[in-house]
Amino acid sequence: MTIAPAGTSGSLEQDDSRSDRLVLEKPRTRRQRPSSQRSGTNFEMYSWIFMRMSGLLLVVLVLGHLLIMNILDGGVNRINFSFVAGRWASPFWRTWDLAQLWLAMLHGTNGMRVIINDYAERDGTRFWLKMLLYTSSFLVLLLGTLVIFTFDPNI
Amino acid sequence: MTALDDRPVSAADAAHVTTVTLKIRRYDPEVDPDANWQTFDVPVEKGDRLLDALHHVKWYQDGSLAFRRSCAHGVCGSDAMRINGVNRLACKVLIKDLATKEGQEILVEPIKGLPVEKDLIVDMEPFFEAFRSIKPFLITDGREPTRERLQSAEDRARFDDTTKCIMCAACTTSCPVYWTDESYFGPQAIVMAHRFIFDSRDEGAEERLEILNEKEGVWRCRTTFNCTDACPRGIEVTKAIQEVKRALIFRRV
After folding, report:
1. Interface TM-score (ipTM) > 0.85
2. Facing residue for B206 by CB, picked from A5, A25, A30
3. Closest Cα of chain B to A87: distance in Å?
4. Average pLDDT of chain A?
5. Which helix (H) or strand (E) holds A135?
6. pTM for this model (two decimals)
7. Domains defined for chain A, CATH in brackets
8. A27: which chain B residues are within 8 Å (Cβ-Cβ)?
9. What DSSP assignment string belongs to B198-228?
10. How far is A20 from chain B (nearest CA, A)?
């Protein structure tokens, strides 16, 4: 068991003794957060919110992407170098693709991180699986971003 | 929300004795370091509960069978076990709902995720430790009032559902996250925190929310609803967990 006995000082006896002390607190002040004992970050909460928000955005981005690439105007048959170059001439589509790349990669990586946390039982396994995950995600993100920013239609 | 089985049992049904087979996961470290399955044929009546069948085994067939039970009427929460793969109280589940055909086996295992001590008895200490860590007692500031702490009926209704917990551990030990990660608080601790966080008389909400905001707190919940399904008191456990998440995001109780 590794649950931090978070503030075990809160036993019932000590709770009683607290009311004997003459401390004049402002009425209805919020109690101090016991954050000194813990990490104090809201990382897990933000990651949870990020998954929901990015998921919603990705539904729009990815469905739009699939529609353009596969269905509209002849679909996959018209995709070639000049088609891609034509789309990326517009900053709008570059931003679209960049947002899609980053959101999808971060969403997927965070999802994998959560799955590793859920299924890997040993700390060592967890650590190395996550390192592998972060390294590969970083490489894909780096490569994708590089291509979107440095794409040259004249090569 | 408490589930009741009020289907009538006719006198003819009650008198009819059939035989069911219990397949029980036995473990006694003093005899065998490994757990193994043992089957018992037990005569049962239509209205019998699984606990009655376990009693029959212990009293007439094999006295070495170990399991916990106290009140035997679904109130004390001692006899939570994994029955046919799902967590139930042995005193609340009827044989006729488990074995519909004669001779059909009923699987009985200890609840999962806690260390087994013997047969169906597990070490509940990790479970209680998670319970204690969310400070399950009234926290207030200032002087004690000279009279009772009053509360409106609406304020009381806000957390009514989570006051029903009997701490049987059926929810926590049905949680797949808890199975692989014992440092997760587990559904029961969150239910108990919910009971105090949403209590208008209590002022420790901030403190408890901070505890549940930790790495092993509510954000590990994957909303698989195993806990809600397992709860013998019909508490909407997953809903309570989601309400704690919402309180954390909006910082409002």
Report:
1. no
2. A30
3. 39
4. 78
5. helix A123-150
6. 0.80
7. 42-150 (1.20.1300.10)
8. 141-142
9. T-TT---HHHHHHHHTSTTSGGG-----HHH
10. 9
